[in-house]
Amino acid sequence: MILPIVAYGADILRTTGKEITPDYPNLGKLITDMWETMYASSGVGLAAPQINKDIRLFIIDSAQVFENQDEDEKGKYPDEPGIKQVFINAKVTALNGEEWAYNEGCLSIPKIREDVMRNESVTISYVDENFKPFEKTFNGITARIILHEYDHIEGKLFIDYLKPLKKKMLHGKLTDISKGKVRADYKMIFPK
């Protein structure tokens, strides 16, 4: 089932997610619905707060980025061909490498894209959908998507990384999103 995406301005997007256990109600269906929602919204990642759940759960599919890149981009990033993964109760344990800029967007902040600086690699501990524990290091585009989605379960948004002047310039657009004056190609829930 395709779920509506929570728009910028909603309190849940600023909430730190709670850890969950294997007996979380209907977890399998929730994850299936999140994949369906993410693909229907043309996203490469989706975090539970974006579908109005205050839990530490996000999904990513960085393989889509590589499948849709231009020929001249091929081989540019070390994490090609990408991954498709569920992350539950994730904790970043290390950030490494140089920071680099990449143009990011967010399903909760439609029609706004900005360059964001993030580290080249991230080491993260998490459990998968079967609650099997992992601690892995990811790099390149995959690391960036993980960090973007991880921020969601920490109550942060990509616009928090922008310089004050840039944020000030986006204020009007962000206000329009929070008031429901911006439309996306997918169903959204706007703050009351």
TrEMBL record:
Active site (catalytic residues): 149
GO biological process: translation
Keyword Metal-binding tagged: yes
Top EC group: hydrolase
Pfam families: Pep_deformylase
Enzyme Commission code: 3.5.1.88
Entry keyword Protein biosynthesis: yes
Cofactor remark: Binds 1 Fe(2+) ion.
GO MF: metal ion binding; peptide deformylase activity
Binding-site residues for Fe cation, renumbered to this chain: 106, 148, 152
Catalysed reaction equations from the record: N-terminal N-formyl-L-methionyl-[peptide] + H2O = N-terminal L-methionyl-[peptide] + formate
Superkingdom, taxonomy of origin: Bacteria
Keywords (A to Z) from UniProt: Hydrolase, Iron, Metal-binding, Protein biosynthesis
Cofactor entry: Fe(2+)
Xref: NCBIfam families: pept_deformyl, PRK00150.1-3
PANTHER family, alphabetized: PEPTIDE DEFORMYLASE
Record family assignment: Belongs to the polypeptide deformylase family.
Chain's role: Removes the formyl group from the N-terminal Met of newly synthesized proteins. Requires at least a dipeptide for an efficient rate of reaction. N-terminal L-methionine is a prerequisite for activity but the enzyme has broad specificity at other positions.
Protein name listed in UniProt: Peptide deformylase
Organism: Niastella populi
